[in-house]
Amino acid sequence: MPSSNRRTLALAYLALICTTALWGSIGVVSRALMDTIPPLVMAAARWGVAFGVLLPLVWRERRGIARALARDWKRLLFLTLVGGAPQTALVFTGLAQSTAINLGLLNSTIPVLIILISWGWHARRPRRLEGIGLVLSFAGVLLILAHGQLRALLHLQFNAGDLIMLGAMLVWAIYTLGLQNRPQSLSLFAFVFVMAMMGELLTLPLAALQWVHAGGVHLGTRELLGLLYIGALATLVSTALFSYGVERVGAVRAGILIHLMPVFSSLFATLFLGERLFVYHAAGFVLVAGGAILGCLRPEPVLSSQAPTESQR
Predict the structure, then answer these.
(1) By three-state DSSP, how is residue 4 classified?
(2) Domain limits at 120?
(3) Domain total for the chain?
(4) What mean pLDDT value characterizes the chain?
(5) For 265, phi and psi rounded to 5 degrees?
(6) DSSP type of residue 218
(7) What is the crossing angle of helices 110-121 and 160-178, to 10°?
(8) Distance CA 104, CA 50 (A)
(9) Averaged pLDDT, 278-298
């Protein structure tokens, strides 16, 4: 493999690792804010911040954005529904009725869902290393979530919030696969801007109703800083990095690396919430990271926007 290709892949994997770190921080910040901000309001505010930050950056591309909306609005609407503010609203709505432990467990289903959906969508069977890596990293996630006692998994109870979050994971898996078909006429930031704009139009009416139903929401310095972080970094930067990585390594490998998210969540909880690290954390980290790396080792062609040929299957 030429050195330029290796450099491109290395940057793509680094972008995906940074993405999982940013996503891992969302649970810590959103949990801290959810006591005062309803889930739909938080989802709308999160993408509203992204919209506001991107507006001056993509202003020069406004004509290209208008052309893309006129030509590809159906495709952009689909990607917004499965990867923008509506999907975020599902996650936050479910999280408000569930626990962080169950959210971490359900996030770990995304790589499985991506591989299963791509099997039917692209007629792409899971490759051996991907399957082995998937099993190892999933085992590491379970070890962390069960605090080293796998019997605890038998006592997990799933409520309506868990089912909503599971639906959100399925929707995100579809977005990951569909991302490779995004309109290439838009720059990465312009694409995220369009997603933010369309997502706001879809979620603001419901968020306004929830705001009124809650009797208004107090937004102090803590809340504003939290929303700024979630919208500008954990949403905007991570979405751009994720898009960059998926377009270069493929949806399946990007999905496997999502298993790193519970690792970062645990680290952030330790650093900022005062939770302690134990031996099972270290063992889980090794399994998760090792499985993710193993699943990405074989340099196979990535999924493309076109149907694979027989030689690629």
Answers:
(1) helix
(2) 3-312
(3) 1
(4) 82
(5) -60, -45
(6) -
(7) 50
(8) 24
(9) 76
